[in-house]
Structure formats: C-alpha cells, structure tokens
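Entry 14. Ran structure prediction on the chain below.
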Amino acid sequence: MTACIVLLGPPGSGKSTVGAVLGSLGYRWREWEPILLARWGSRQAFIANKEQALAEHRAELAAFVREVGNPAVLETTGISDSRFLDALSTDATPFVVRLDVPLEEALGRVSARARGHHLSDDTERNRATWQAFQEMVVPRRKANLVIDTVSVGPNEAATLIDRAFSVRAG
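Output, structure tokens:
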C-alpha cells in the first residue's frame, strides 16, 4: 500500500511552506495551485469549471501518490476534497497532519504572500475558508499529528512530520 502525507489546513497555515521543506528532505511534493491556475487561466475559469477541474485534479493527485519513489506530500483544506481524502484512505495510507493557525495570523500570512500563485488572494474569501475549515474539517477529519504553525516554524514542523511519519511507517 502506498504511503503519503496529507498537509491539512486553512489558507495561511503553512501547507505550501512545510510541503516545500518536506520536498527538500526527499519527499515528493508539488505545489499544485500554480499548476491549476496555469491550466485554467484564472481563478474565475477554475471556479466556472470547478466540477471538471477538481475531478481532473483529484485523478492527477491519486496518480501522483501511486508513483514509484519516496512518499508523496499533498496539501488541502479538506473542504472540497473530503470525499477524495476518504477514497485515498482505501488506496493509500495517508498520514494526516493538521496545521493550525489563528485567523488573524492566517490572514496576515495570506496578505504577505506573492500574488497569483494561489486560487485566492482575497482576504474575505480566505476568511470564509478559514471559518469553514474550523467548522467542517477540524471536528470531522482525524489527524495523526497536529502542529501549531505559530509556535512551530516550517523547518521544525517538517522535522516533526518526518520523525512521526517514519515511526509510523517503521
């Protein structure tokens, strides 16, 4: 069975940053949002074709997880990907890491990041997504590891994930 790491968190929680550090440690990681934006041309085009776009993206993610090599790292809010994550559990052994961040810190991070690399740079959309994550994902999605990304930086988070994942895979 294929093992993978799922970074689960709201916008601004550090999923991409921690994913990149895990990539530097040898895990297979890809930042998918710029790829999706390039493929669809804009956030508006992605949203207008959301059902098709997400179906294609999920198939691509599943293939990425199944590729031979080091374990894959995926990142998601878990909101629109809930069924995909459930299905992933039947084909793979996901190690779910929830990255927690308070709302104002998350919004500050979102406003400071480079524009045009994420599906939404809009503060109010990200506020709504953060709230939906708290209401829909946190109480329902079991995590193997929870990291507060205010008190734990990306390098330390990646080290904690690597150690915990290695012990579990052991």
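The mean pLDDT is 90. Will compare against last week's run tomorrow.
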